[in-house]
Amino acid sequence: MPLPWDQLTHVIEIFEDEEETWRLIEQMVNIRYLVVVRPFKLKRSAGLSWEWPSLLLTVDSLECLTVNACDKDWIVNNETLIQPELEGLSFLDHFQFPNLRSLRLMMWSELELNNPDAYARDTIPRFLGRLKGYRKLEYFSLSCDNVHGLDKLFGAIPTIKTLDIHLRRQPEKDSTALFEALTIKDGSEQYLLPRLQEVVIDLTTSCRWGSLRFEELLAVRGFLISRLERLLPGANFKLVLYGTDPALIESYVSGIDDLIEAGICCEVYHIASDMGDPDVDSISRWWMLRDPELKDWPEALDLRRCQ
Predict the structure, then answer these.
(1) Which candidate, 219, 214, 215, 271, places its Cα nearest to that of 242?
(2) Residue 256 near residue 221 (C-beta atoms within 8 A)
């Protein structure tokens, strides 16, 4: 029996065909919350075009979109494709979401925005262009190994109020990059993410180097102090920490306890040890737990047990 797609407001689905994906979303005239999990099945060799309909589909009702493109690799004609999740990002090329408030992206490897390779050279500029078009975006979540070009990413999403970021395999040398990018420089009138009110950081990675390093602590403090100084009267700034290592989380909290007293809100969530495997499938499970749009949808949260 066919589903009443035109009546559904919340959909979590695995799509395997480009045209079918497009046609189904076209029928979802009341869709508000959509999760697209591993949405593509490659049927051609690398470098050939995909079979998307040529029309750009406008989905006025959609407010919250998740694209989970975390396949480790895809094999096509005995050839392993590099960075297959970039094809997941290109999902955005075929739709317009004028009322999108929340966007969540899961990728397997690094997101290279500064010097994309030949495979990504066209995809990355289009991706950044799409982000700039989401003028009502308030919530942005990204899970990937690492990001190069945070200024380009944040420059494309100036309206967001909440940033949820999980850099799973960030090397030690890049440990301060996120906080430095978000720090407001002294006397600066223009800075990245001017509406930012909340940062959610997932400290569960496969390559953590133990407790909070001194350089990282300085960067965290500099970032929080700069945001605290720019708060309007009555406003607050929130830092939310997730992780499986209580000692690591405690090193963060103890390192900013004076800033918490000064007005920074800090929330801490420990992830159960049985969900602490850095494998992407388990990451998907706890990542769903903190999606604010799922708080009132227990059936969807239960899917974490069977992903």
Answers:
(1) 271
(2) yes
